[in-house]
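To whoever picks this up:

The nightly regression suite flagged Protein kinase domain-containing protein as changed. Nothing in the input moved, so I suspect the structure step. Input below, exactly as stored in the fixture:
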Amino acid sequence: MFSKALSSLSSNISGNYSISPQPSSTAGPWKIFDAKHKKAAKLASVFVFDPKTLTPSPGGLGGAGRGGSASLKRAHEEVIERLKKEASSLARLRHPSILELQEPLEETRNGGLMFATEPVTASLATLLAEKDEQERSGGVGGRGSKYVVEETDGTRHRRELEIDELEIQKGLLQLGKGLEFLHESAGLVHANLTPDAVLVNAKGDWKISGLAFCGPHESSTAATSLTPISLSEALNHDPRLPRSVQLNLDYTSPDFVLDNSLTAAADLFSLGLLIVALYNSPHTSPISTGGSLSSYKRIFSSSSSIPTQQNNFLVSTSHPLPSRLASELLPRLITRRPAQRLSAREFQEASYFDNILVSTIRFLDALPAKTPQEKAAFMRGLPRIMPQFPKSVLEKKVLPALLDEMKDKDLLAPIMSNVFAMIKVMPTGKRAFTTVVVPRLREVFITHRSAEKDTGREAGLMILLENMQVAAENCPGKEFREDLLPIVMLALESPTHAVVDAAHVALTHVLPVLDFTTIKSELFPVIAAVFAKTSSLNIKIRGLEAFYLLCGGSASGNDDAEDDLNGIGVADRRSASSAGSAILDKFTVQEKVVPLLKGIKTKEPGVMMAALRVFRQVGQVADSDYLAMDVLPTLWSMSLGPLLNLQQFQAFMSLIKNLGGKIEREHTRKLQELSSGNAGMNDGLGGGVRRSASGHGAMGTVNGDETDFETLVSG
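Regenerated output under the current build:
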């Protein structure tokens, strides 16, 4: 149904964006659809208003009783103008706490309206309605959320809906900042601040929208093209129109209704009612007017029906309000006289927000303006309080804020340390790592890399290499090969030895993720080139350790146990200790790896012993002829190195003997097979005479034959 409706709302936005067939949320009269730009692949939310929603339902009040169709048409036109004003106000008002407009308002062929904004998860009204349904069904644990949305590529996923205390405090602070901007900088009053006017974006930030009734407040001195709203018209509820396009009296201040005064403080009264709705059960305003002015006035004529501290703001005792909220903050918001209310600036300074987590969020919001010393101290201290944060806040708020600061190379290392710490503890760490962290890593280390030495960038690269196990566990093979492997190879070719060393160590976690072809054609040539040209003994040893792994050695080093290379039991040991990564084929080992080993010029014992480990693996892969002609002479030469001690020399001799034994056994077997073939041929020509002469029957054997058979079956 919605897909057909979208097709009728043809516009530039619908032509440039892939729009989900079903709305993900609603905000007043707007349906909100997830969308993605077809060319730029930028995510967005498309707000759609269908004029058919203004048509009275059958059996409802028609236009005849209110002055005919002309009067109804005029009312519809006024609604359309207000909705246009809502979108145009978003274009003029640019602030982090105001919903960000991405595509301006467009009128569609059927008279509808459409505009695009930053990606939003849902309106606060939708989230609270969902919480009501969950609580009616026995709480969040009583049933799974039905709030499932379909992406533009057809995939479906479940939204995260839980709104905990920190989310509320963070969101209210953001609303306070937005109201401060509206009241003091823009000189405007929102005038209809309700849960439908609060949008939660993809990062979990609360954004102000719903500006259809926004206008200058009575004490405004700011220049604006907006005209003050007519309270007499805005407060007059029209039963022919949906409530979603009219001022919501349940969240309206008495300044408007009783005093006919357009005060900025009216928004703070509405904010107090919105706060109560967050904790109420059901999650609605403590004032219920049914859209009737007379009901509103009747409520405010009696102290018992007005939400106050004495009656717990009309919230059920089964849903207690936080103590500081009930005793200190709400009494300064939900109060009859505007002069007694907190301003938007004072609201943000309330003691209700005094805790370490909220202070951390505040610092994050102001992070770009902090000094380098303050940023560094913050990064050092963040791991201590990270376990206290809800995982959803880590993913939606803290992680994106840190990633945005990765442009500061001096902070790159501490930022990445914190990023990996978050990935480890977040249940959605794998999703977050692949979708937001990996693209940022590629941007920092590949896209914006510089030929000049950058110590800050190298420090960040070291952190990535040290956390390569986390990266490999959270990044599928294809994405790892395309996005992270280039960074690893860049580190291998770094002029800084510490980075190269860390990159070699990280190979233990890199190799199991990659396929054989990638290892052979992309990774091995880089490792080989670094090994061949380095003058660092430590890098030489790291390179040999990499060859050991590439030739099938175990990352745990268990393959170093004595092995007589007879082929018995080796497979069992390797299967128990191997990391499961692909290894190089025999041709590459013989034609590429061994020549590199033969080219080693240093006689340093550390390098010699590391090469010995590689040769032990080569002995399990290479042909006997190759071992005899190419490997053993090299081993003899190395074993006589003047710097080796007795134990090291004996280790070389042990491998030389084992390889010699393997060569002897295999060559003996070949000769025996050849001898048996020749003997069979001779038997075919004259075997009958020999058997007769020997005195044995058809089943008889000579002693030589018995010896050959025993040698054959015993190997």
